[in-house]
Write a structure and sequence with these properties.
The chain contains four helices and five strands, in the order ααβββαββα. It is α+β, with helices and mostly antiparallel strands and 153 residues long. The protein has a single domain, classed as HIT family, subunit A. It has a five-stranded antiparallel sheet, covered by helices on one side. Strand 1 and strand 2 form a beta hairpin. 23% of the residues are buried. This is HIT family protein.
Length: 153
């Protein structure tokens, strides 16, 4: 995406009431750790552990499925470097990458954001995973329906 087009889309896709849009616009200060024309990464003000950072698109999209693939890729392009830098600086060997969509999925700010959360014995994301079981019939049914929606039956 050309720089002028990206800048135009950011201005067009902005929610004046969105705290992340206001942070991206420089109206609210943050501890910026990375920025380019389309993406901003900054330290979370309510961290689960030292170094907890967020990656956001500068353009406003509430959920991941609303975003153009190119913009999602731009957000994730910095993720490996940022995760490595956070790991090195904090001395942790483990981290979570988390992205929530919708209130039921614990999305607190209705602007797409990716968390990078260092994990140590002293802090980080505490997670309970109550895994179910995918049966053959349900697996076939879901695969057919999802692949069909993607245009790959």
């Amino acid at each position: 995406m050309r720089k002028d087009r990206a800048m135009g889309e950011q201005q067009q896709r902005r929610d004046a009431d969105c705290i992340f849009c206001r942070i991206a616009a420089g109206e609210i200060p943050c501890h910026r750790v990375y920025e380019d024309d389309e993406v901003l990464a900054f330290l979370d003000v309510g961290p689960l552990s030292a170094g907890h950072a967020l990656i956001i698109p500068k353009a406003h999209y509430a959920t991941l499925d609303e975003m153009p693939g190119e913009l999602a890729a731009a957000c994730m392009k910095i993720a490996p470097r940022l995760a490595g830098a956070i790991r090195d600086v904090t001395g942790t060997s483990a981290y979570n990458v988390l992205q929530n969509n919708g209130e039921l999925a614990h999305q607190a700010v209705k602007h797409v954001h990716f968390h990078i959360i260092p994990k140590s014995a002293d802090g980080g994301l505490d997670l309970t995973w109550d895994a179910g079981q995918l049966g053959d019939e349900m697996g076939r049914d879901l695969r057919t329906k999802i692949a069909g929606r993607l245009g790959r039956a």
